[in-house]
Amino acid sequence: MQTMRAPAAQGAATRVAGRRVFRPVAATKVSTAVTTDVSKRTVPTALEEGEMPLNTYSNKAPFKAKVRSVETITGPKATGETCHIIIDTEGKIPFWEGQSYGVIPPGTKINSKGKEVPHGTRLYSIASSRYGDDYDGKTASLCVRRAVYVDPETGKEDPAKKGICSNFLCDAAPGTEITMTGPTGKVLLLPADTNAPLICVATGTGIAPFRSFWRRCFMENVPSYKFTGLFWLFMGVANSDAKLYDEELQALAKNYPSQFRLDYALSREQKNRKGGKMYIQDKVEEYSDEIFDLLDNGAHMYFCGLKGMMPGIQEMLERVAKSKGLNYEEWVEGLKHRNQWHVEVY
Questions:
Q1: Is 242 helix (H, G, I), strand (E, B) or coil?
Q2: Res 50: pLDDT
Q3: Does 56 show up as a binding residue in the annotation?
Q4: 305 is in an annotated binding site
Q5: Rounded to whole angstroms, how far apart are CA atoms 342 and 327?
Q6: 205 labeled part of a ligand binding site
Q7: Residue ranges of the FAD-binding FR-type domain (predicted)?
Q8: What's the gap between Cα 1 and its chain centre?
Q9: Count of CB atoms situated within 10 Å of the CB of 181
Q10: Going by C-beta distance under 8 Å and a sequence separation of 6 or more, which residues neighbour residue 114?
Q11: In 3-state terms, what secondary structure has residue 228?
């Protein structure tokens, strides 16, 4: 199992509230992931028209965009470095909330046949709504954890095993060209029913698609989309310094107390009911009665993050279902049949 660690920042950077931010030199304004202004913004509603974009660009015919800014959004005591990356797209690679972009890192590799070939595509869930962090439809954002391998015997980083794409993105300076594909994905889309409760369960950078959700639900004035349901986010990280977009989340909780709920599972700071570490499934289980009731009444439940999150969650849900006299497999199949169950893990 690899260990993640944030190395020293590279390139020209400044600090905002303890965070590293790569600043575009000639920009008159800089988007930032650190915001407490959750007021509704006017957006160009032409992006509401037409069919859902899908695979507009491919590996053979990719899209060339440029990095606007890179901001480290984790604190010094986090178990790894996560960056919020804003990309200038000029609105030419549109997407819907819940979709992903492919990124092809520069350079080549030697494949199993000894041939030099381009690096493969890495998929990243998009962390902004279709209107971007500037609400003009001209940018898109990614939430990327820097992948660094630390040798368990020496305790030192092995540069040969670092994540090629994540380090390229986290080290990118403003203006860096980025090769993209997509958008892809149909699993994590918002439901047509704007009154349906949304139960979103994330670990780490799995929060990315849910940021696109809450921005659309609460921070944009879209005449044809008025969210009136409950938005309930469960977020699992190691400690408080590993929280992502917390300022924005706290502002939403304050401004929409009847519609927005936020629960953290901090595995290295909190204890579960049995006195063990608080993992995401433990926090969800605390509210299992409410969650099962909401699902019985049309709620949609979303899961996004590392695939290792799902076995513990499924075991917990199966145990709860059994205690309620339900057949777990039949219960989940019913949710899937009604399109209330959405899982995208990696």
A1: helix
A2: 94
A3: no
A4: yes
A5: 19
A6: yes
A7: 60-190
A8: 22
A9: 23
A10: none
A11: coil
Q: Which long-range contacts (CB under 8 A, 24 or more apart) does 269-276 make?
A: 269/239, 269/240
Which residues are marked as active site? 124-125, 304, 344, 346
Query: pTM for this one?
Result: 0.89
Query: Cα(197)–Cα(192) distance, rounded to whole angstroms?
Result: 12
Residue 190 labelled as part of a binding site = no
Beta-carbon-side half-sphere exposure of residue 255 (alpha carbons within 13 Å): 15
CA distances from 21 to 25, 103, 111, 300 (A): 12, 21, 36, 35
Q: How far is CA 304 from CA 32, 210, 280, in A?
A: 23, 9, 12
Joined together, the tokens standing for residue 26 give: 């000639």
SS3 241: helix
163-217 tens-digit pLDDT: 999 999 999 999 999 999 999 999 999 999 999 999 999 999 999 999 999 999 9
Query: pLDDT tens digits for 28-54?
Result: 334 466 688 999 999 999 999 999 999
Dihedrals phi, psi of 330, to nearest 5 degrees: -65, -35
Does 240 carry a binding-site annotation? Answer: no
Using H for helix, E for strand and C for coil, what is the string for 106-144? CCEEECCCCCEEECCCEEEEECCCCCCCCCCCCEEEEEE
Q: With H, G, I as helix, E, B as strand and everything else as coil, classify residue 72.
A: strand
Q: Write down the mean pLDDT value for the chain.
A: 90
Residue in 189, 217, 212 with CA at minimum distance from that of residue 84: 212
Does 286 appear as a known binding residue? no
- CA–chain centroid gap for 148, Å, is 19
Q: What letter does residue 142 receive in the DSSP assignment?
A: E
**Distance from the Cα of residue 267 to its chain's centroid:** 19
145 is in an annotated binding site: yes
Q: Is 64 helix (H, G, I), strand (E, B) or coil?
A: strand
pLDDT along the chain (346 residues), means of 10: 34 38 36 78 95 97 98 94 97 98 95 92 97 97 92 80 94 97 98 98 98 98 97 97 96 97 96 95 97 98 96 97 97 97 96
pLDDT of residue 177: 98
Q: How many residues does the chain have?
A: 346
